[in-house]
Structures are given as C-alpha cells and as structure tokens.
Amino acid sequence: MKKKVVSALLSTVMAATMIAGSASAGMGTVEAAGTEEFDTSMLTKAENPVELNVTTTFAGEDGNVKNFQDAVKAYEEATGNTINDMSGTANEAFKARVSADFQTGSESDVLFYFNGVDSNEFVEAGKVMSIDEIREKYPEYASNMDDGRMGASPVDGKNYSVPVNGYWEALFVNTTVLADCGIDVPGPDYTWEQFLADCETIKEKGYSPIAAALGSVPHYWWEYSIFNNDTPETHLNVPETVDDEAGKAWVAGLNDIKDLYDKGYFPENTLSALDEETIQLFMEDKAAFLVDGSWRVNGLATNCQSDPEDPSTLDTERLDKFAVTYFPAKDGRKATDVLGGLSEGYFISRNAWEDEEKQAAVVEFVNYMTSDAMVARFAQHTASALKAAPDVDKSQFNSLQLKSMEMMAGVTSFTAVVQDLVPQDCRTPMFDTGMPAIVSGDVTPEDAVQQSLDLMAEKAAQ
C-alpha cells in the first residue's frame, strides 16, 4: 500500500507544479474563479428530470463553496434535474454522518469525499462503484484524468473516486503582526529553532504567536509535528508499536505540540475555541501564524470582501497583509517538503448506479463536475489529476493566490497525510478530546499513541 501511495504522490507533484507554474496546455487559458461562465455544453436536457442527493465537503469555510453552488445551479438550469445539496464541513461529526448514512442504506447518490481509509468501509462493502465498472458502460467516464494520480483506494488499489482539486498544507502569515515584532516573513530555510524564537518575540509583544483551536481542529499541528520528526520517505509508516521508529516520531510530535502549549504560544482558549474563532484572531491582527490547507487561500480572500458573494468587493490592501510560506523544518525534513496530495474525489453510490432513472444522470453530473475547465476553476493554485493542465492567466488572481503559486514553485516534495491511514474512530485519543488531555498533561503522548494503536489493532481483528 505504501508503494502505491508514494507512486501516486510523485505524480501529484508533477500535477501540482503544472497548475502552479502555468505549464503545459492544449486547453487555452483559464481565468480565476468567478470570471467566466460555466461551460454546460456537455450537458443534455433531461426528458424525465430526477432529483440527485449530493454530499460534498464544499461547505463552511471551504474556499470553493461558491464555485460548487454556482456550478450546481448551472447544471440544474441546463438539465432540469434537481440537486439536493447535503454538503457539510469536513470535521469528525460530518464523517460520522456519512458513515452512518452508508450503514443505514441512506447514502447520497454522489459523494465528494476522502479516498483514504475514511472511505474503506463503503468500498469494502461494495457500496460505491469503481471507475473501471462505470467505464464498462460509459468508457468516457473520467477519461480526462491520469488514472495513476486519481487516488487509489487503500482497500484494493483501485480507483473509485474522481478528484477535482488537490491540497497542500502550509504556514499562513500575518505580515502586519510580524512587522510590528521586527520579524521577516519566513522563507524556504525556516527552521524550528527560528520559529520558536519568533514565537517568543511575538508573545512578548502581546500577540498570540499561533492561531489554532487544538480542542476542535488539532490535525494540522498533529500532522506537521509528526512529519517534522520523520522524513518524507517514512511519514506514511503507521506505527506497529509505540517504541518503533514511527511510534517514536508520533510521540515526539505530540511532545512538540505540548511544548508549544506550555510556552503559551497558542491562544488562551485554544482548547475550547472553534476554528472560526482562532482564524478571526489571525484576520484581526491578533495572531501571527496559522497552519491550514490550500482551501484557506480563498477563505481568507472571501473574508476580505465587503460582500462575500462578490469578488469585486475585495479589499486588496487588507488581503495583501497575508502571506503563505513553508512550515518550519526540523531534523530530517526540509521546510520545502510539504504535506499535500489528492485526498478527495467524486464517488457514485451503487444504489444510484442501479437506479435506472438516475444512472445516466449521476455519470453526467460527475463528468461535468470533473471536466478540464471545472477542475482548473476549483484547483487554481493547488494540484489536479488532469492529463493536460491548462495555462493560467496570473493577472486574474489575487495577491494571496499568487503568493501560493510562488510558494508551490519551491516545493521539493509532497507527502500525503498519515492521518488518512488511521481509521477515524482510532484517532480519538490523539484528536478530539485526546489533544486537550495531552497538552494539559492529563495523558502522556506515549499513552495517547498506545491507545490509538490498541484501537487500530482491535479494528483490524474484527
């Protein structure tokens, strides 16, 4: 399984570079989201319109919420079909809801969801269609994608989902706060030691060094802290014991987070705050650093608009104070070794496939939502699995998107997140209620990792 993951990610690096560097083409130039109409020429008017239940993670603070909603509206107008949008923010509660829907037989017709272990249960149960099965009847399905980059299932190495936009995770910076503290924006050689020194300076100036809600969204810090204690070659190794090399990296990563907490580098309410609250600290010049995903680029831009629905109302001066750079490096990892990949895609449920009235509609919907032009609109400054990436008109992008592209151009490697190889319910001792207990000293990192390993062993034995 590890070989498949690494192989896919090597291809993802190439795809990401094409998007960020405006390379290759054959499709012409794609402008930034919101500057062109959706191409619905591939869609047909339905003789007997149907309702499709669609669940995605395009919700909440996700930067592609409006893109998705506008694309759905254009689809409905072109086909006469109705989309029941059941999207939700990709948190643990949302994942539990999706799991429960499959267990009770009430799953959506189309699902934009994670292609790692979070989807294992419904892949193993045969409740979603493989790409190969669909192509037996619809050979053009996802034909614009490179199969080797689509994100194969850990269950059997087959492709079940069609990806749209990849992701990366990095360090967002409030340059106003840094300037007031006499600190330069970190570059590609930023080290953990420099980061700790900067955090101390920022704290002494009265700011929160790090905007993070460890009690509700700990996974960005969990992932990078572990990554900092191993290497791109070893990061996807799940521990067998707390004392093996992977186990030691997990423990060391949790200890690093606890050290940051003990030093007072997180907000005072980090264990009780919602993600939105700590992001607001960052937006309001009260915190310096924010570790988040590529989706945050559009989210920050939206927060700088007087009208969230109208990109033309963007306060460019406000947005210009934000930058994005590499997470500080430690030990065997370079700062330019970045977490990222293609972790989500569109699944078609077997129930929808076997429904004669819905089958053609769900295939057409996914083909539309994963067309070259649509992927370019959603992916922008991230990665994709397209066989041919479009040229990008950089004049159409805002300052933070351009900074993201510049940052991406310096990436030396992408590595997937190891949390996607850990079943959701087995992460709890280190996430959810687990992280507050760890940083507060109620549970040792060793015990937390051991509890997760025990849960994984129990699950594997079932």
TrEMBL record:
Alphabetically ordered keywords of this record: Signal
Top-level taxon of origin: Bacteria
InterPro entries per record: Bact_solute-bd_prot1 (IPR050490), SBP (IPR006059)
Signal peptide: 1-25
Statement: the UniProt record of this protein carries the keyword Signal: yes
Name this protein carries in UniProt: Carbohydrate ABC transporter substrate-binding protein (CUT1 family)
